[in-house]
Structures are given as C-alpha cells and as structure tokens.
Design brief:
The chain is mainly β. The chain has a single domain, classed as Hcp1-like (Pnp Oxidase, Chain A, Roll), CATH 2.30.110.20. It is built from two helices and ten strands, in the order ββββββααββββ. The strands form two sheets. Strands 1, 2, 3, 6, 7, 8, 9 and 10 form an eight-stranded antiparallel sheet that branches. It has a two-stranded antiparallel sheet with strand order 4-5. A hairpin with a 3-residue loop joins strand 1 and strand 2. It starts with 12 loop residues before the first strand and ends with a strand.
C-alpha cells in the first residue's frame, strides 16, 4: 500500500498579499509556470529530418482566487489602483500557505510583484441558496514553492 502520510488536504489554505489582502479563500489556482517550446528542424548526416526542441519564453500562470463575499473592500481597493493607472503602487508580494490537518504550515508558495488584472463580484439569483462569490485574478513576475 502506498504511503500517503505526506499528502496534504487542498482545502486548508490562506492567502497573504502584502498590506492588501489576507484571508481564507474557497479556491485557488495558477500556482505554476511553463516554458514555450521552440522546435528546430535539422537534417541529420543521413539526410533524415529531425525535430529538436528547446525552451522558449518563460510564462507564469495567473493566480485566481475565489472567496465568499464579505464586507471587506480590500480586493476592490487594490484593483482600483490598477484601474487608475498606478500599477507600480499596486504591485505586491504575497504567499499562498497550506496547512495540514493539525493546523501546521505544510506548504507555501511565494510570489513577487503581483497586481490584479481582473476582479468580479457575485452573480445574485433570487432562486439560489448559494453563497455569493467574488473572484480576483492576479498577474505576477515570479512564484516559487518555499516549503
């Protein structure tokens, strides 16, 4: 049987964005990066066409955060800085922190120079019992897993 002692629950995490947003969210995605793939066609000594690949431009995934709507305007105020053209003031560092079932920090991703590219509020419906969800999409310049 496989040892699953190190598997972490994905439901216990916190977001901390320098002086802007701190809290618990319902969902988080985009903790990664990828390289574009560049293909080069070459002819071997025997005349056979070969494709060689190499890494191209590095792309960081945008972080998407969703949470139940609260009375806090923190995310909206942060986004307003970008809307008003003050992107440099809006840039912040932050962390996504996961906890194990004992409440201990078990994984952490740190990102730098983040700014909100999109924000959206809930979609109220009279026939729904679901909680209102707000979403923010964040662009950043770097992310790494530190724990």
């Amino acid at each position: 049987m496989a040892n699953d002692a190190g598997i972490l629950p994905a439901s216990h995490f916190k977001v901390d964005i320098q002086d802007v947003v701190t809290g618990y969210f319902l969902e988080c995605s985009g903790l990664g990066s990828e390289h574009e793939v560049i293909e080069h066609k070459v002819i071997s000594q025997s005349g056979q066409e070969l494709t060689i690949t190499t890494n191209g431009r590095l792309k960081w995934e945008q972080i998407t955060l969703k949470r139940g709507i609260t009375s806090s305007l923190d995310m909206w105020t942060w986004r307003k800085q970008v809307e008003e053209g003050d992107i440099e003031k809006a840039r912040r560092n932050g962390s996504i922190i996961m906890y194990n079932q004992k409440g201990e920090v078990s994984a952490q991703w740190d990102f730098r120079d983040a700014w909100p590219v999109k924000i959206s509020g809930p979609q109220p419906k009279t026939d729904s019992n679901e909680i209102g969800v707000e979403e923010i999409v964040i662009q950043h310049e770097y992310i790494t897993r530190t724990i």
